[in-house]
Amino acid sequence: MFDPTQILAYATALAIAAIIPGPGITALIARSISGGAITGFSFLLGLILGDLIYLSFAVFGLALIAEHLNTLFVIVRWGAALYLSYLAWQFWFAEHQPLDTELTIRRKDLISASLSGLTITLGNPKNIAFYLALLPLVIPLDAITLHSWGLILMPVTVLVLLAVGGIYIAGAVRIRRLLSQLHAQQIIFRSAAVMMLSAAGLMVLRA
Asked: Taking a C-beta distance cutoff of 8 angstroms, is the pair 156, 7 a contact?
């Protein structure tokens, strides 16, 4: 088991990394503004799921296996880059309308939001390297057991990412009522599109 200082150090480092805006956070804000809190949290669910997958890869040493599956990761990166480019195109050319605060959320929209969040995270396999670099600084990898992974690392990761993402969602929803001007919506969505397209370009270069 880990002592409280190790858990706190891991949670703090993860929170700092999560707070730094990137394509995922930018898209999260845009989704929350356009679709409200429920859509935002559905998108955040996808982001968190992707992080948990890579955390598990790092913990169980699958990052070493990944070195022998480079072709698979190249395919994943290309697929993610294409999907991010498609999302960027949608965000850039989205038809903006006055925001409906009583918007009816459809189930397929929530599923789409979650898949988008998952794709953005999985599209960057360097998240494995992040966890491999972070964990040994606070917790020896050979000290992590299946028990501590499932009962400590996974819940702490979910809580930290949920808290950070929740703050961004709350902020986006709070200003949602102020974004009645279509021009303001266009700026936010096109900023998200640029971030996504940039991330897609980096993935292609790495592939």
From this structure: yes
